[in-house]
């Protein structure tokens, strides 16, 4: 009797942690690693801050920040933070965005416009990395204001979050 229960329990064991994260393969790209110091009464305390973009090249993307005493742990923390902040974005058949958008974060302003097929990603810095990891292949982007890499990446995420499809707009306006 007890051996039958043990066999049934073995079949029921399901790993719950990281179950839904492993079914899609994510790509991680490091934007920046900076060494930061905190001045305390006992002296200076060194740590590292990593900014990472994570995505699956199929419309999911997130930006994560992690801080630790060594680079490897900071990178791991940034990856987990990026997975927590994943967003889903609509992509057209020509691997572009549906319409032009603006994104603001701090002093950074990002302007994104759809582009024709074959033009590639025309963007610079952190915005280019975010768009490539998201799976967008044809887009024109311009960053204005600050050149802070973290704020530019976050402004790009805010701009991509505001993207809507035609069906979403029709549903919102009750025209279905």
Mean pLDDT value: 89
Which structural class fits the helix and strand makeup? alpha+beta
Task: Give the C-level CATH assignment of the largest domain.
Answer: Alpha Beta
The CATH architecture of the largest domain can be given as 2-Layer Sandwich
Give start-end ranges of low-pLDDT stretches. Answer: none
CATH topology of the largest domain: Ribosomal Protein S5, domain 2
User: Strand order, biggest sheet?
Assistant: 1-2-3-4
Q: How many individual domains?
A: 2
Order of helices and strands: HEEEHEEEEHEHH
Count of helical regions: 5
Number of strands: 8
Helix content estimate: 25-40%
Radius of gyration: 21 Å
Task: Provide a descriptive summary of the structure in words.
The protein is α+β, with helices and mostly antiparallel strands and 176 residues long. The protein has two domains: 27-87, Double Stranded RNA Binding Domain (2-Layer Sandwich), CATH 3.30.160; 89-164, 2-Layer Sandwich (Ribosomal Protein S5, domain 2). It has five helices and eight strands. It has helices spanning 2-12, 71-84, 125-134, 149-161, 166-172; strands at 27-40, 43-55, 60-68, 87-88, 101-105, 108-114, 121-122, 139-145. A four-stranded antiparallel beta sheet has the order 1-2-3-4. Helix 3 packs across helix 4. The longest helix has 14 residues, at 71-84. The radius of gyration is 21 Å and the shape is flat.
